[in-house]
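Weekly structure sync, notes
Attendees: PL (lead), two postdocs, one rotation student
Agenda item 3: pending single-chain targets
PL asked that the sequence for the first pending target be pasted directly into the notes so everyone works from the same version. It is reproduced below exactly as submitted, 289 residues in total.
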Amino acid sequence: MDSFWKWFLGIPLQLVIILGIAIVSQAVLGRLVERLTFRAMSTRITRDSEPKTPEEVIERSRRDQRAESITALLRSVIVGLVWSIAGITMLSTIGINVGPLLASAGVVGVALGFGAQTLVKDYLAGIFMIIEDQYGIGDLVDLGQVVGTVEEVGLRVTRLRDMSGVVWYVRNGEILRVANRSQGWTLAIVDVPVSYDSDLDKVRDIIERVADDMTEDPVSRELLLDRPEYAGVESVSGEAVIIRVTARAMPDKQVAGSRAIRERLKVAFDEGGVKVPAVLRLPHQPPKA
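Predicted structure, written out during the meeting:
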């Protein structure tokens, strides 16, 4: 038993201590990074205050999303550094000369750098995407290959879920453009056809009344950031005159806001005697396959 404890208090105990220090360091540094990141992102709105305006709600959401992405990135870096140092220290403790190992690792790293240029490209692109806040977790983005909601932003790939529920993994190095529909606000566009012989002044008055009613409606204010505006005549054809109405909406409320405007206009047109003709396709709608 004395021999066992003498042996255990030597190298095995040192390995256990190194392992314990690595685990504790990873947990402490991860927690510290999370707190510092969220504190650094709290520029205009503190974590304890409640947002009072739609713009503050959007800013709070964007800050939290970016903080989550940056925290995930820094945690990955911390895990790599902590366990690399712990592994080298443990090898040195058991008597392995790590000098030649590090030199060989450097040579292998250079070789892998030439052979894994695509992988390096993906990682660099992922780092800059997170730092530049191109998108974050929860954003609705168009990456060219796919349109969906960002579920995870990694250093190599970005995971999205499209409108039908399919999960997509897009390599960061292959993302050439990003259309982010969740930053700030989106524009709800409603094109309404009216018959060619309709009185446009009457149509405009009806739209203005609908806009005033929606401004006073608490339910509509949850969808739209400001008053719907009469944009004017979008196009004229033998079938109808297309009237466009626009309104700024919350990033995730664009579709719901557009539907609410259409519903209000339909009821108001019926009451005002404005006829809505049947048209094959509105100007901003894609043709059917």
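Discussion points:
- The chain is about 50% helix and 15% strand.
- The two ends are 81 Å apart (CA to CA).
Action: rotation student to compare against the earlier draft before next sync.
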